[in-house]
Design goal:
It contains 2 helices and 8 strands. By secondary structure, the protein is an alpha+beta fold.
């Protein structure tokens, strides 16, 4: 049986909209499950490199944020964790399209979380693959 998320789509979107450090990216929550979250990065000129390619920092920020949100979906909005490691493999350019990023917790320990995030288009074609480790602050 799949557990119901402790923080849902509306609560996570309010968090994204309220947090100043995330606001410039304009992420939109697409879906939320227990330990999984998908966000969309709206296509806008400020995120494009020459040639209409969505910049790498935008993809990495989305990967980082979806795991942060996946932890909050599983444990609640008040639960906090910090990025301890983020590894990125860029697989192909995201050219002139909105980007979706899906994050999933693979293992949750007492203080450490391991997960993956994949940035893709609406049809699932991958742009980047990320492994992310989060740690709960002491």
């Amino acid at each position: 049986m799949i557990a119901k998320p402790k923080a849902g789509k509306a609560a996570l979107q309010r968090l994204l909209d309220a947090e100043e450090f995330i606001r410039p990216w304009r992420f939109k929550i697409v879906s939320v499950g227990d330990g999984t979250v998908t966000v969309m990065i709206p296509l806008r000129k400020a995120l494009l490199r020459p040639g209409g390619i969505v910049n790498g920092p935008a993809l990495m920020a989305a990967a980082d944020v979806v795991l942060w949100l996946a932890i909050k979906a599983r444990h609640g909005i008040a639960y906090d964790a910090l990025t301890s490691d983020l590894n990125t493999a860029f697989l192909r350019p995201a050219k002139n399209v909105p980007v979706y990023c899906t994050g999933r917790i693979l293992r949750a320990g007492r203080r450490r979380f391991y997960g993956v995030a994949e940035c893709h288009d609406k049809d699932g074609h991958l742009f980047s693959h990320h492994t992310v480790t989060y740690v709960q602050p002491a």
